[in-house]
Amino acid sequence: MTSHERLAALEGEIVSCRKCPRLVAWREEVARVKRASFAGETYWGRPVPGFGDPAATVVVLGLAPAAHGGNRTGRVFTGDRSGDWLFAAMHRAGYANQPTSVRHDDGLKLHGAWVCAAVRCAPPSNKPTPAERDTCLPYAVREVELLESARVLVCLGAFAWDAALRILAALGVKRIRPRPPFGHGAEAAAGRLTLLGCFHPSQQNTFTGRLTEDMLDAIFKRARELSAAR
What is the distance between the alpha carbons of residues 189 and 176, in angstroms, rounded to a whole number? Predict the structure, then answer.
């Protein structure tokens, strides 16, 4: 099988997963009850796989799908404010063919990049438990393993940074000592990958100015530099 075929097979496993009862119950309840503004839509209501370019040199790792974003549309960071910021920045950096991501069939294509999440189901209050994180993380491990050209992991937030360190350990990469702390612009090289920290493009960060467009653009500029150098 080609890497593209293996990624497709992994996607099939992810979308059919029912390993975490609390997350299954929540994602399906949200899909059934719906938000009033999306009442006429059919929600995805299943785990959300990663997507992008199988030859990606840069992988963007988030926390989990949003209840009325990825859990509604079936594509991570799609149909929510965080995605508005993320894909606009990826478009400016040349990683996306368009600046918006509103639904799974909107024509968005990524070039040299892959986007996924540490946890594939929308969690209540956007807070997966440690057990749920550990149950889901093998999917990301296999994904990164199959993305053989990947050289940079852009970690959106501290949760993703911690998950990325766990992914490296699962891949057999020598543990980084001392453990590198998360921060916006933080870097940690390990094996073929460099972790690159970025504040999550959540409304909590973008509305308060903790994360600006210039700061996000700088991250993707640095990601391109690192991926070209490794």
Answer: 8
